[in-house]
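Researcher: Predict the fold of BolA family transcriptional regulator.
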Amino acid sequence: MKLEQQLIERLQTLAPSHLEVINESAGHGGYFPGKESHFKVIVVSDAFQGLRLVQRHQKIYAVAAELMSPGQIHALAIHAYVPSEWQGQAPASPECAHAPKP
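Model: Structure tokens for BolA family transcriptional regulator follow.
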């Protein structure tokens, strides 16, 4: 099973009202078709109610821990919201200094 699908399944345990998992690997050095190393996740869940930002990230890292080992997910950009904070979009990811040049 692809890493992206495994990550989605693990994040579903947080009962999100909105979930996006975006494979951003193509924008990073060493990319080849099919590579799964860099992801951006947007998770909106009541599970984050009353938690500080670092605690929300810890909760996401806890469910994704097995996927964060060497040779699997190298980088995970996290945007975690409670429903009342969600405005319909997360910030764009910055450009990677080692991204493939056109």
